[in-house]
Design goal:
192 residues; alpha+beta; Alpha-Beta Plaits; four-stranded antiparallel sheet; two-stranded antiparallel sheet; 5 helices; 49% helix; elongated
């Protein structure tokens, strides 16, 4: 058994890196980040050529094929997990409140989120529609404010592919990581 496990482990790790990179690359493409996608594509194909060449040379070794499949599986999971952690881009939130939404609007604005609201008519009467576009990394903080205001509020989360201008938090203070409800954001007009 002298080193028979080394090649399957290397193939497993290589394929996990390839598919993780591929998943993130596809997400970058969908977000219009062509330069990053091209760099990741080069890394991805270089490692893939290494992995597939070793699998093809060792088709009689079921451990190599199993390692390739397992690396592919893990790579998908890691790619999506990593992308969620990076939280690139912007998210749109559209909220429908049957209550007085002023406290929620004030809380969202205190966090530095730009908010637009208007009155509308729903099936069960009058509602206030609140719309905001926020950095994706702040989605949990915004949702915490929503649930604090009205745990049963109906809202829609939308992926935003681009914005022209607006009010966005300028930066995320380090102390804000622990509590999503602390204020302390400063806003600035940002032209995309």
């Amino acid at each position: 058994m002298d080193g028979a496990w080394v090649l399957p482990v290397v193939i497993f790790l290589a394929e996990a890196v390839v598919v993780t990179t591929s998943t993130i690359r596809v997400i970058f493409i969908s977000r219009g980040k062509r330069g990053l996608a091209a760099i990741l594509g080069f890394i991805e194909i270089s490692i893939w050529l290494f992995a597939i060449s070793h699998v093809m040379r060792n088709l009689d070794n079921p451990w190599c094929m199993l390692a390739f499949a397992a690396g592919f599986t893990l790579g998908n999971y890691l790619g999506v997990t990593l992308e969620r952690q990076m939280a690139l881009g912007k998210t749109g939130l559209r909220l429908f409140s049957r209550r007085n939404a002023s406290p929620l609007i004030k809380a969202l604005r205190a966090r530095g989120f730009g908010v637009t609201s208007w009155q509308a008519a729903g099936l069960e009467g009058s509602v206030e529609v609140i719309q905001t576009v926020i950095p994706r990394r702040d989605q949990h903080a915004a949702e915490a404010l929503i649930h604090l205001h009205d745990p049963s509020m109906f809202y829609i989360v939308e992926e935003i592919y681009g914005t022209e201008s607006g009010v966005f938090p300028a930066k995320r203070p380090p102390e804000d990581v622990k509590s999503p409800l602390k204020s302390g954001y400063h806003t600035e007009d940002v032209a995309a």
